[in-house]
Write a structure and sequence with these properties.
Blueprint lengths: L1 H24 L9 E14 L8 E8 L4 E6 L4 E4 L2 E3 L9 E7 L7 E8 L4
Parallel strand pairs: 3-7, 4-7
Antiparallel strand pairs: 1-2, 1-6, 2-3, 4-5, 6-7
């Protein structure tokens, strides 16, 4: 059971990576280098939600450990982990310590979060 889930996640990741690289080659998207941020959530904004759990999108403001703040867009389906369990953007709270991986898409403002790992999610 555990291997099946691991293989499924790996295949999903590979399909996503291949589809994104084809868009980049076609000139649709140009990414910057993947950046990593550690800090504490200062605010959570949910812009829209789908009809099922996990389909909400919005943004978080992160107070960085190094100082300063950064706004990160959260697309529906962004992986937010609490330990080994996936959680939803609606479950994030102000004060949660997180590690975020994000990138910038040319032509779009702000940074796009790819994964969020909760260090001390409540």
């Amino acid at each position: 059971m555990r291997w099946g889930r691991t293989i499924t996640l790996l295949l999903a990741w590979l399909m996503l990576a291949m589809s994104m690289s084809s868009l980049a080659l076609a000139g649709v998207w140009r990414w910057t280098q993947l950046q990593q941020y550690w800090g504490e959530i200062k605010s959570v904004r949910i812009d829209k939600c789908g009809r099922r759990p996990g389909l909400c999108g919005g943004a978080i403001v992160l107070a960085r450990r190094e100082g300063g703040e950064v706004v990160l867009a959260i697309r529906p389906g962004t992986w937010i982990k609490r330990g080994e369990r996936l959680v939803l953007i609606e479950e994030l709270q102000i004060g949660d310590a997180v590690h975020v991986q994000a990138f910038e898409i040319e032509g779009q403002p702000g940074l796009q979060a790819t994964t969020i790992d909760g260090l001390t999610l409540r």
